[in-house]
Design brief:
166 residues; alpha+beta; five-stranded antiparallel sheet
Length: 166
């Protein structure tokens, strides 16, 4: 009886296995990046909802929303306002009504940030997720921003009924 002393894999078999592993890794990495983007979008939605609640609490106490002159944001393009105190990008909201004003988890550009604007009387406001949204957010949740506002394909807004003209 003859015993075969050649046990193991051939070079072609090893290359095929390595190629299959590489393809699977590429698919997994692409799926992971998509999931990360959706996760950041979910955080942005949660941030906007928390800001809406804090704004309503503020209005309940003071009878109007915090006043601002023009767009205020935490990014340099829109003033680089802090996330708390009377000089925050939403003046006077943090730390009383929300512990700290949220920051975008991953701004896409230097101008990507959360923005706030109110009318001069404080009866209406608009919150804007500007140049940061990575996915498609359903319009039932946030409204796409229109021409005339700080716009971009990745900008969405929450606003009161009378704020459409801000």
């Amino acid at each position: 009886m003859k015993i075969d002393s050649k046990k193991g894999f051939t070079l072609i078999e090893l290359l095929v296995v390595i190629a299959i592993i590489g393809i699977l890794a590429a698919v997994i990495i692409a799926s992971l990046n998509t999931a990360r983007g959706k996760s950041r979008d979910a955080k942005r939605l949660a941030d906007m909802k928390q800001l809406q609640i804090a704004l309503e609490l503020y209005k309940n106490d003071y009878g109007s929303y915090p006043s601002s002159s023009g767009w205020r944001g935490n990014c340099a393009t829109y003033g680089g306002y802090p996330t708390t105190g009377a000089t925050g990008y939403i003046p006077g909201l943090a730390p009383t009504y929300i512990s700290v004003l949220p920051l975008d988890p991953k701004p896409i550009s230097n101008t990507g940030c959360y923005l706030y604007q109110s009318n001069s009387t404080g009866t209406d406001y608009m919150l804007l997720v500007h140049a940061t949204v990575e996915g498609i957010v359903p319009t039932s949740v946030m409204r796409p921003i229109w021409i005339g506002q700080p716009n971009g394909a990745n900008s969405y807004a929450f606003y009161t009924a009378g704020a459409a003209g801000l």
